[in-house]
Amino acid sequence: MKNENKAAYGKNKNPKAANKKASPTKKSSLSKKKKDIKKNPGLKGSSSFRKLAATPRYRKHAERYQNILENIRDGYFEVDYDGNFIFFNDSVGRILGYSSEELMGMNYRQYTDKDNAKKVFQSYNKVYKTGEPAEGFDWLIIRKDGTKRYIEASISLLKDSSGKPKGFRSIIRDITERKLMEEKYRRIFENAQNGIYQSTLEGRFIIANQSMARILGYDSPEDLISGITDISCQLYAHPDECIQFIEMMEKQGQVKDFEVRFRRKDGRVIWVSRNMQVVRDEKGQVLYYEGIIEDITDKKDSLERLRNALGGTVRALASVVETRDPYTAGHQRHVADLARAIATEMNLSADRIEGLRVAAIIHDIGKISVPAEILTKPGKLTELEFGIIKIHTQSGYNILKDIDFPWPVAMMVYEHHERMNGTGYPRNLKGDEILLEARILAVSDVVESMASHRPYRASLGVETALDEIEKNRGSLYDESVVEACLNLFREKGFKLI
Ligand SMILES: [Fe+2]
Ligand SMILES: [Fe+2]
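Above: query sequence and fe (ii) ion SMILES. Below: predicted holo structure tokens.
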């Protein structure tokens, strides 16, 4: 209240005096005017209205204004220099929760707390000093029943008929719902675990939340906003990822779950997942970007650890069969190398290639069900022995079928001895009934087997192996797989190591 004493705007420079004057609990020094109005309160009771209405010439105007004021949802009121109500419409009473009789002569300090009374005073003072109307003041008011509401007020000087200021007039609106909504969104923004931001087209942050600052290693959003002047140069750890991101933004206007590496303030590189979109005005002009980032460094690390663990498990499985069958040691790894090269040549996705590689490295796992004497037998196998060897596709499937790989590894293993014309085993599948990965596995298996040494024969050589698949392309082996394989060996110098 100290300031108010210094900057009093009205003729009554002591607000305490104003309060005293308006306090309903004290003997009021309110003028006779108030007593008159008490008898006949509200718009119609106002002296201005009564004066106008009494003059036939102005009656129509007075009634029209009265009608407008009584039917608008916004509150309209006039106060004297001390902030005491001297005129108001019904909405003011509705907003503040007082009857017209109670409102007349009431001072703003009676429906605000100490801090807000100060705000109201400052608002009036500003208008008084500048003489300019002002709007957008937010005040917290306390209604008669004690509930608190937010109002937005605009204020201008109230002048008498000679143009001399005599108080203020205001339009007020209850903005409680909007305030609560803003508060809710503000809390979400401030407490979100993900970084939320808006940035300019030039690459500066406009706003950012605390998490955004924390993820990027800054003390506060202000520190981040002032510290980053060029997002693409300062944040991206890999410029190619920045270019890729910008290209996607330009093409689609938004980017979802884009994983990039950012450099924190302390230089540490982290993985983040970015979601961003452009915000345009009604004419379609780009105003700014807004987005969310999530720190996925830990997720990436654990995914990497899982991938390593899976790789280790698969290698351990592969070694199980190879220790029982030293002649085929290295066979599965060589098949995996060739299968991966063929799949790459055929433009399969990185994910499918990874699944094929895993299946290839354990494709003969079912041979652990075949007696070692048969596996390592020198010379030709009898029909019965060959029949036993054939079981390895089924038992490989049985071993793998319950492992929840992200790819159909068990099926690839099951089908790696199927042939295009249905002469393979164990299910005599044909053409497209066989998984593409299994068709690639079949060609890789045949080429690797023929090109390497076996207990019952010496290596037949790569050329013989390639002749075999070329001769039987379309009948036993998938044509496009054979073509990719031949291309690798004959045009690209691929070698089985
Ligand atoms: Fe096999
Ligand atoms: Fe094999």
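Residues 363-364, 392, 416-417, 445 surround fe (ii) ion (ligand 1) (CB under 6 Å).
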